[in-house]
Here is the input.
Amino acid sequence: MLIDPIERGDPSLQGAVGGPCRPDPDFVETNGIRLCYESFGSRRDPPLVLIMGLAAQMIVWPEDFCRELAAQGRFVVRFDNRDIGKSTYLDSEPAPSMAALFGGSAGGTAPAAPYTLVDMARDTVGLLDALEIGRADVVGASMGGAIAQELAVHYPERLRTITLIFAPTGDPDSPPPSPAAFANLVKPRPTEKNAFVDMYVESWRVLNADHFPFDEPAVRWEAETSFERGRNPAGVVRQMMAIVASGNRKDALRSTTTPALVLHGTRDPLVPFAIGEDLAATIPGAAFEPIEGMGHNLPRGAWPQILRSIERHAPGARVAANGG
Here is the structure.
């Protein structure tokens, strides 16, 4: 039986599946894999699930950001996608180099993807099932936003709202990333820790653009923690294969009914701003909010606007209690 905490208002959900609500990792088995997740806030509050992007572990949703969302009156869940962090690695599946993938894709010889974004959306549904959540607000960033789009197409009954942050549509005619951002995708991932950390930091420096201050100490901690939690270069390639194999979602999105909010930085070097504008124009009734100066990351200086926007679009229990 699926439980919708808002509709049922059941206090017994506090500390239900997975034990007390705490920012400690837990695991669920779903869709043939094991997902690692963490939760913040009370299970009595509206559930909000965060889906992160390509090559990014769940810790790229900063803990303070998650706590701010929980403070709005939400049960917040972040998790590692398949092939990243502490979730299942599909090591038996093929994974060419990223450069070979892009070369093969351009030449029409890309290898078959072992899974698609629909499979990753199904992972999210399985996580909801395991946590006994009927419907949730979902916030997806980058590839996570693409997965959220697949949820809206294939599993709308599991969604209250979607918020899509610098999310691509899969349209092959979309403007390309900047040369520096594209280079981040195809460069080999170092296996030695210090080199990995340095590359991670410099990659996010590029994605930060030049408007908001770059918080190097925080990103360096994130890099070191990501390395210790588990690095999986082949999994990053498989995730990219899933993105490529999933193709253009625009036609399907035109028939979706899930209330959508699109947030996009005006200086995004990886998924250019025009893609966000096009995404919002494609989804019926979608709201669109540019974030001036933001690149392809979540700088602390942009949090107030992002948090306010999410709170308006997908009100937490605090807003509901105040009659908002």
In short: The chain has 13 helices and eight strands.
